[in-house]
Write a structure and sequence with these properties.
This is Secreted protein. By secondary structure, the chain is mainly α. It is built from 13 helices and 3 strands, in the order H-H-H-H-H-E-E-E-H-H-H-H-H-H-H-H. It folds into 2 domains: 143 residues, no CATH class; 115 residues, no CATH class. A hairpin with a 2-residue loop joins strand 2 and strand 3. Helix 5 crosses helix 7, helix 11 packs across helix 13 and helix 12 crosses helix 13.
C-alpha cells in the first residue's frame, strides 16, 4: 500500500507536497499512517478540500495584493497540499529559490470535520478555510526573511523570526491562526516575559518555546509565536512611520537579534 501511495500521489506530486511531508524515505509511511489512523477525518474533509482549492485564488486575492504592496520584491511560489496532519505550513527550496507550503489538511475544519481521532494538539490547531489568508501571509513573509537553517538559529532568533511573520501576517491578513495563543499569552504575559529572559540567559533550546506539537504539556504549544510577535510589535510601534522599518522587521531579528530586542524596549 505504501508503494502504491508513493506511485499515485507522492511521485507525481509537487515539490510543495514533498516539502510538507517527512524525507523521501519516510513520506509514504507517514502519510499512510495518518490516512489509516484518521480515515474518517480525511473522508469528511474531501468535499471541503476540493471546494477550497477551486475557490483559493479568490480567497487569497486581497491578502496577496496587500502583501505585494508592502513588499514588491515578493516572488515566492505558494503550494497548497494535503499532508499527514504534521504541520500546517513550511518552507521549501527548489532551483535556488524558496517557496511557501500550506497543509490543507489543517484548514478544512468545521462542523463537517470528523475530528474524533485527532490528538488534542491537532484539534487545537485545526482551522476552517477562512483562516487560509492568514497562514499564507505568514508563510510568504518567511520567504522574505534572511535564509538561516533552523538548526543554526538561536532561541532569540527563532522567536523573533516567527514573531515577525506572525505580526506582519496579522497586519496583512487582519487575522491570525494563533488567536488561542493571544488569549493565554496576554493573561500570563508577565510570567512569560520572566521565563523567556531566564531561558535566553540559560541557552535553552528552541523547543522550549517553538515547534512543540504534542510535547507542549499543559500550556498551549508554541508560545514563542505570541511572545515574538509582542516584541516585534513593540519595535514597530516605537518607529512606525520611519522609511525602511518594515524591512528591519524582516532582517534585523536574524542579523542582530540582541540589538533588535534592545531597541524594542519590550523588557524595559
Amino acid at each position: 500500500m505504501a508503494a502504491r501511495l508513493r506511485q499515485v500521489y507522492l511521485e507525481p506530486g509537487t515539490v510543495g507536497l514533498r516539502a510538507l511531508l517527512p524525507g523521501d524515505e519516510d513520506a509514504s509511511g507517514a502519510l499512510l499512517g495518518a490516512l489509516r489512523a484518521h480515515r474518517d477525518y480525511y473522508v469528511s474533509i474531501r468535499a471541503e478540500s476540493l471546494q477550497v482549492i477551486r475557490t483559493l485564488p479568490a480567497r487569497l486575492e486581497a491578502v496577496l495584493e496587500r502583501l505585494s504592496g508592502l513588499f514588491p520584491e515578493l516572488e515566492a511560489d505558494l503550494y497548497v497540499a494535503v499532508g499527514a496532519l504534521g504541520r500546517g505550513g513550511t518552507l521549501g527550496r527548489t532551483g535556488g529559490r524558496r517557496f511557501a507550503v500550506v497543509g490543507l489538511d489543517f484548514f478544512c475544519g468545521g462542523p463537517h470535520a470528523a475530528n474524533g481521532s485527532l490528538s488534542a494538539w491537532q484539534r487545537r490547531v485545526l482551522h476552517p478555510a477562512a483562516a487560509l489568508p492568514g497562514v499564507v501571509a505568514h508563510e510568504l513573509i518567511h520567504t522574505l526573511q534572511p535564509e538561516v537553517r533552523v538548526e543554526d538559529l538561536t532561541l532569540l532568533q527563532a522567536v523573533l523570526a516567527e514573531g515577525a511573520a506572525e505580526y506582519l501576517g496579522r497586519i496583512v491578513a487582519g487575522d491570525t491562526i494563533n488567536a488561542h495563543l493571544y488569549g493565554y499569552g496576554l493573561r500570563h504575559e508577565a510570567e512569560l516575559r520572566r521565563r523567556f529572559q531566564a531561558d535566553l540567559a540559560a541557552g535553552a533550546p528552541l523547543e522550549r518555546w517553538l515547534y512543540q506539537g504534542e510535547q507542549a504539556g499543559a500550556e498551549p504549544a508554541d508560545l514563542g509565536y505570541f511572545l515574538g510577535s509582542q516584541i516585534v510589535q513593540a519595535y514597530h510601534e516605537r518607529d512606525r512611520d520611519r522609511a525602511g522599518v518594515l524591512r528591519e522587521l524582516l532582517d534585523l531579528p536574524l542579523h542582530d537579534p540582541q540589538t533588535f530586542l534592545r531597541r524594542s524596549g519590550y523588557f524595559g
